[in-house]
Amino acid sequence: MAFLDVDELWLLTNQHKQIEDTKKLYEMVARRAENEPYEYIVNSVSFYSERFYIAAGALIPRPETELLIDAVLKEKPNLDEEINFVEVGIGSGIISIILALKYKNATFIAVDISQDALNIAQINRDKFGLQKRIELRLGSLLECVDEKIDYLVSNPPYIEDGIELESNLAYEPQNALFGGEVGDEIINKLLDDVLSRNIKFFSCEMGYDQKGKISYYLKDKNYKNLAFYKDLANFDRGFTLRL
Ligand SMILES: C[S@@+](CC[C@H](N)C(=O)[O-])C[C@H]1O[C@@H](n2cnc3c(N)ncnc32)[C@H](O)[C@@H]1O
Q1: Which of 25, 96, 100, 222 has its CA 20 to 30 A from that of 89?
Q2: Nearest alpha carbon, ligand 1 atom 24
């Protein structure tokens, strides 16, 4: 279907037709046989019921990241609220874009250290007509954001450096996956920023084994609430910190 760019109904009603450009089809099949992710081959991915452009250069959105959106919605149920969001590590743009579609009065500054990722995020942002509300910035963490932040959201790289991953993950940008020698370095830096800049809300995805370490990191710190959430496989997957 992706190859022909048609829907299921078209396939059912046009079964007698033959594919003309078989060369391109075989090329796509050969790429898949090398374990390249399907989404990179067809340049398309679904997230939170919307379709996004995707290509090598940005992480393929994962279904569990939809729970990060739900965590924000739970914290801020008033969709009319004017909120200054900042996202660190926008990748393909899915988180800021879905939140911008939900919160019509919110603005976003979205940062990434990868220009390739920002180029892909820009295609998606423009496709949804959100140029006026989502500003893209090249930079590391919050270094390029001086503005007041109401809500920080992030799905940062959080895997320990050097861990051997499945072969299909080799196609994805490694700086989107690995978070440092221990894995929690970027999360901890974001926590430091949240505390030092007094950012009232921070929702963040994390690895299934990071709950204890994050709780420990925050144990003597001053905050109002720390609530972890699990994914559908019952693994710890993220948290919201409220100051
Ligand atoms: C796990 S991906 C998340 C992408 C996207 N938000 C999503 O959920 O699919 C992490 C992203 O963080 C970016 N990143 C890594 N280190 C960063 C840093 N120090 N500052 C800003 N972005 C960073 C990567 O380039 C990557 O796009």
Answers
A1: 222
A2: 176
User: Bridge-partner residues for 178, per DSSP?
Assistant: 159
Instruction: Kindly tell me if the per-residue pLDDT of 1 is higher than 80.
Output: no
What's the gap in Å between 242 CA and the centre of ligand 1? 22
- The protein residue whose alpha carbon is closest to atom 27 in ligand 1 is 91
User: Residue ranges of the alpha helices (H) in 60-148?
Assistant: 66-75, 94-102, 115-127
Residues lining ligand 1, Cβ inside 6 A:
59, 61, 65, 88-92, 94-95, 111-114, 117, 140-141, 155-157, 173, 175-176, 186
Q: Would 167 be classed as within a structural domain?
A: yes
Report the CATH number at residue 98: 3.40.50.150
Tell me whether residue 218 is in a domain: yes
Give the structural domain span for 197.
40-242
Cα–Cα distance measured from residue 234 to residue 243, given in angstroms and rounded to the nearest whole number: 26
pTM exceeds 0.85, yes or no: yes
Cα(198)–Cα(172) distance, integer angstroms: 34
Q: What is the pLDDT of residues 93-146, one digit of tens each?
A: 999 999 999 999 999 999 999 999 999 999 999 999 999 999 999 999 999 999
53: CA distance to ligand 1 center in Å? 17
Overall number of domains in the chain: 1
Q: What is the mean pLDDT of the chain?
A: 95
The 10s digit of each residue's pLDDT in 10-43 is 888 988 888 887 888 899 999 999 999 999 999 9
